[in-house]
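Researcher: Structure for this, please.
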Amino acid sequence: MMSFGKKILIFGLSSLFSPAPFAAIPKPATLNNAAVDAILSMPEKNRYILAEKKTDELYPQLLELASNTKKNLGVRWKSLTLAAHLKKQSSVQAIRPYLSSNEWYMRNAALVALQEISQAESQKAAMQLLDDKALVVRSAAVDALGSDLSVGMRDR
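Model: Predicted structure, token format:
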């Protein structure tokens, strides 16, 4: 009769040399388009909570949606701001190009996203967007600069 310790040792060694020791463990399901759409349609707080559980899987899909000109304003705006929320500082490089987007709402989304993740990047972007052709974007730039100033004043 084989002892429990020997059984564990044999199982462990056989697992090491097996071509697929974990083949029976299912891979996590990828988020399909309907699941991503459902996440984006949720209220902001719920959207953030659920998305944070799927950050690595969801992030590239969000950036793809944000750049898809066939999608509507709401989907693209939410996609970009949620992507920034999920990856924080590491998303700055992906967000910057949207500051010069042809669509005003994507320039606005980029500024809002940067405000959440980096005060320095937000200030630079706001300065750049102060003379934007869209009133909404100019207003958001002024708000961003104003909120940065008020934070500085509170710290004194």
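Researcher: Any notable elements?
Model: Residues 4-28 have pLDDT under 50 and may be disordered. The chain is about 70% helix and 0% strand.
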